[in-house]
């Protein structure tokens, strides 16, 4: 909505590419509903709205706060509800969320909701979730959060390598 999750996604992609993983960063509005059969790692991120994934009403509220209206049409909640994983695919999913500094600790963030939705769609969790702090609602990412995101990308790449060795 404000670009912070996209910045975090690019930092995670940097961590993955640093260790040789080929990466495409895609906005949810352009994400395919049918995942490629050979996709071995999917990383999904979203902003935390009202302690979970955004809904049309929370995205509309973000637009009232100055967010880009072009990002209000579809969210990760809807995409995960529609995504299809090919039979026999062994796609692992890593999840991350962004949330404002006013709420340093969340009882539940968007990443927990995404992980449950991904499991229901047949995706295997890649382990720990990542919650990244944004300064205020509009951002930017708080000090050190871009580095944490890059490290998460490296962590996911290592887990991918370990799974391939099994």
TrEMBL record:
Top-level lineage group: Bacteria
Residue ranges occupied by any Flavodoxin-like domain in the UniProt entry: 1-157
GO MF annotations in UniProt: FMN binding
Protein name: Flavodoxin
Organism: Nocardioides glacieisoli
């Amino acid at each position: 909505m404000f670009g912070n999750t996209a910045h975090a996604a690019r930092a995670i992609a940097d961590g993955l590419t640093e260790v040789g993983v080929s990466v495409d960063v895609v906005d949810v509005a352009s994400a395919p509903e049918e995942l490629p059969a050979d996709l071995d790692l999917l990383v999904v991120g979203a902003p935390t709205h009202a302690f979970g994934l955004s809904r049309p009403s929370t995205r509309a509220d973000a637009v009232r706060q100055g967010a880009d209206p072009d990002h209000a049409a579809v969210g990760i909640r809807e995409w995960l509800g529609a995504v299809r994983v090919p039979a026999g695919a062994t796609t692992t999913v890593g999840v991350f969320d962004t949330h404002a500094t006013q709420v340093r600790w969340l009882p539940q963030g968007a990443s927990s909701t995404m992980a449950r939705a991904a499991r229901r769609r047949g995706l295997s969790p890649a382990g720990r979730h990542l919650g990244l702090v944004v300064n205020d609602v509009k951002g930017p990412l708080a000090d050190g959060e871009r580095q944490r995101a890059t490290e998460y990308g490296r962590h996911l790449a290592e887990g991918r390598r370990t799974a391939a060795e099994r």
